């Protein structure tokens, strides 16, 4: 029996746009076995040229949106990406989009796009842990697999995805778990969306939370996002970090709490005062797995805090920034954390 892909005639191949932003996938080192390298050096056309086999999956074009290591990713670039993807997918000329991206903040851009792209068409982030020039570079196969998923109608309606190391992750669950290993990405909350093996895709589930075409968030006409800081909790945390953020103009603070979103008594007191003044305090966790629930050891109802539920601190920050674009009550903001 011929497979679905073998039956496709060449001129019926789906059209996939690769939007490149830099990262290790475009990284270059002086030699093939060298741990120091510069991310974001190889252009999108060179990456496409290096993978002629990709053309059997899709008609592929590329655009260079940025050339940064993703530690330098900005909301300005994310907004530009979201705008370009919305335009491309509204035109019906593109069936799916791949975004090449550094891995450091891939989960943040993936989650931002999950909330601000309004289309069912596949949007797939990918990257690499080894530079383009390395021995056993992982980028080419990741890119090949990402194109296979972006070209696949079965990937549609599953929100923004990330394809790394043969795995398909949802933007909601994806997180980086190792500083250097190729198997760095995990989906610890709701599990994997699927797997992809040399362009053969298998899906296990749809994301449980709202995304993309169901999202109520829009960045049309938005030039600035409100400042939201992340404060990392630890034993004997200095409580005046809260005051510093408020003084610098933060409209919201996500505390990467210890354990189940905890912080010491002094920080709770300063955070409660900030909350009374209108700053939105979200309790997340510095722990990589598990959720943060309301009113466990901290009385959120009384203190006016929000629980991050399934979102890690950087994603909680993004949801809060978008939520603060409109006047919303604490109750409404908490509901967003249960919804997205
Ligand atoms: N593996 C990577 O992509 C890390 C490289 C770089 N720090 C980035 O995030 O772009």
From TrEMBL:
L-asparaginase N-terminal domain mapped to chain residues: 15-207
Keyword set, alphabetical order: Hydrolase
Query: What Gene Ontology terms describe what this protein does at the molecular function level?
Result: asparaginase activity
Q: Is this entry keyworded Hydrolase?
A: yes
InterPro entries on file: AsnASE_II, Asp/glu_Ase-like_sf, Asparaginase/glutaminase-like, Asparaginase/glutaminase_AS1, Asparaginase/glutaminase_AS2, Asparaginase_C, L-asparaginase_C, L-asparaginase_N
Quick one: which residues bind substrate?
70, 103-104
Q: Which family does it belong to?
A: Belongs to the asparaginase 1 family.
Matches recorded under PANTHER family:
60 KDA LYSOPHOSPHOLIPASE, L-ASPARAGINASE
Q: Which NCBIfam families match?
A: asnASE_II (TIGR00520)
Question: What name does the UniProt record give this protein?
Answer: L-asparaginase 2
What is the species of this protein?
Desulfosarcina ovata subsp. ovata
